[in-house]
Amino acid sequence: MSVWRRCLAGFVVLAAFLFAGCRGDGQWEEEQLGYTGKARRYPFLAASRVLEEAGYGPTDRLRSVFVNDKHYGTMFVRASSVADKATVNRLRRLLRDDVHLVLLLDGGERYLNDFSKGHRALAGSWQAEDIRDTALIELLDEFGIELDDGIQFSAEAPVRYSLGGETFEVAADADFGVRCVRAEPVIESVEGDGDAALIVTRRALAGRLTVVANAMPFRSRFLAEGDHAHLLMALMDLSDYGGIAVVEDGGISFFGMVWRRGSLLVVAGGLALVLWLWRRMTRRAPVLAAPEVALTDFGERIEGLGHFVWSQKGGAQLLEGMKRELLARWGTATGQMLVFPEMPDSGSISERIRGEVSADDIRAALTLEAGAESEPMLLAISNLQKVIRLL
């Protein structure tokens, strides 16, 4: 039996033993990894859809409390979005405009994962001390709402609250509670112990202010638990007007402020820039006539070049270059090797070219000084060129 057959037989025997020892049963465990897509980026997607199906209308998402072109009856704002007094003043103005303002103190951030190990992962992103260090505490103090960090809530121990004659069971993790000290509580604990609660609501100016210690009951994963969805709709019934908005961020950027305060100026500047570019573009500019190019004869160009060389006192360089060329041609033709500035005899050169140029003219060209007049210079250059061509 070959080696390959032995290996195949061993593999078949091993597989038979493995299959024989398998009973065919097992245990499957399912682990929830979390939402994907829009539900992962927007923790209140389920709440917005529940409210829309219940007839409360669609829920708009706003980038800032400063950017709202229409009047909303209810606006949800995270505490982490209230960073300065300008935002607090804006919230106060919204209350004057009959808006039901719902402040989510903790657990409303988008980066939190509803499927993290343990429900406590949604608590603690904002502590009571953190909120006291922000400008939001000014608004809470104004309407008599206190933060009590001496109490904690656990999702494993739901709390029952009474609102409008109905009882709601709410379960959430929170490291602190809220208490309304200067108004009759609209939401009361069924146990009636008077401790701080997960949620309080009261009239504020012309609107209503609701403060939620932790937004966990209204997040997508936990909205279906307990009576969270019914509590959300009961809060909507406390609003004087329809229209719901969730503010993604509370502040306003520099460019947003410029657009808010000077949108007309920005639009006018943009139109002026577009008009200027339109007038300056080549394809929109007036058609220009083709420039008239003066053509120059080649002879005139050579003559002009000669005048330039002569004006720069370049006659010596012209003569030297031609003498060196003549010396090289003479060495090639006769085999007589001379070193510049030594030149062959003018008579010998004249005899070599069969008298085409006389010996006197060759002598005059070879002995002409660089500073001579133009006419002798031109005659010497012409004779030297003729000699070079004939050698």
In short, what is this structure?
With 391 residues, the chain is α/β, with parallel strands linked by helices.
What's the average pLDDT?
A: 78
- Helix count, per DSSP? 13
- The domain count comes to 2
Biggest sheet layout: 6 strands, mixed
Strand content: 5-15%
Morphology? elongated
Which quaternary structure do these chains form? single chain
What would the CATH topology of the largest domain be?
Answer: Rossmann fold
**Strand arrangement across the biggest beta sheet:** 1-11-2-3-10-9
Q: Which CATH architecture of the largest domain would you pick? A: 3-Layer(aba) Sandwich
Structural class: alpha/beta
Beta-strand segment tally:
11
Radius of gyration: 49 Å
Helix content: 40-55%
CATH class of the largest domain: Alpha Beta
